[in-house]
Amino acid sequence: MRRISRITVAGAATASLALALSACGGTSTSSSSSESKGDKGLAIAYDVGGKGDQSFNDAAYAGLEQAKKEFGYETADVEPTDGETDADKEQRLVSLAKQGYNPVVGVGYAYAAAVKGAAEKYPDTTFGIVDDATIEAKNVADLVFSEEQASYLAGVAAAESTETNVVGFVGGVDIPLIHKFRAGFEQGVKDTDPKVKVISQFLTQTAEEGGFSSPDKGKTAAEGQIEKKADVVYAAAGLSGQGVIEAAAANKVWAIGVDSDQYQQEALAKYKDSILTSAMKDVAKAVYNLAKSVEGGTPATGIVKGDLKTGEVSLSNSNPKFADDAELQKAIETAKEKIISGEIKVKSS
Hints:
Helices cover about 40% and strands about 20% of the residues. The protein has helices spanning about 10-25, 55-70, 85-100, 110-120, 145-160, 175-190, 215-225, 240-250, 285-295, 320-325, 325-340, and strands spanning about 25-30, 40-45, 75-80, 105, 125-130, 140-145, 165-175, 195-205, 230-235, 255-260, 275-280, 300-305, 315.
């Protein structure tokens, strides 16, 4: 049952607040029979790239859909807007909390200031933030992952699969979070085969420049690495990664996807035969688990971390050419076991 302390909002207030939401980012809601009881559940606010990025944001949406199906309550998901400020983000989260949604999740580190501010204003609402561990509050869950561990396995896969002894890494934005992906990937490559060269590149210095939302930038970067003989390219770049995958397919080399199982993404179906694997982090599970904790009356708070041991980071096995390669799978499984045991310490920078 929903917690008794769940805020309920009259219809007139909801209508006026919907206008406020529209002013700071588009929203979509879905309801069920529970709406008649005034119950509202999980709401998420997307990171740059928004819904449909086939990666990070879509993974969060999958968690929302799972919660909606299981708990039968009303949900909301809200798009970002171009050039928005921290104040805009905070207003978006405040509007959701004021309407009675609980929990409210900011998808991405860019929501740190906004989550902190909104959580102070609504101490009875549980907030979550994905990919940030800096907020210390009794009603905030920091949903973070050991991306470097999955990236290490991606590095093993790349080193085992390359025929040119050159592989590439394309990071969306030059920030500590993406450094974790690069560090793990480079270590995995070098530990597997020191002769393999890694070409690394960041698309932009800031997210505002489009590093996570520009497939054209990703395509250009990948083409440059492929010209330098890279025949496996790993992208940790959100929506921009679609351009990397497109370039790999056009040049008949391997791409490694990120966050979601990109081999399974409908929008990438025509390129899937070029997607070797994806370094996944289960944002969907993290978002769903937070909703489940609130639904059960014991909201998760503090740092909630997913790694190889918990199964919340992993490599996908959807591509049969990857899954059926026994030698490759053995190398990956060996590395995975050593990481979980602590024999291999994966760098995060």
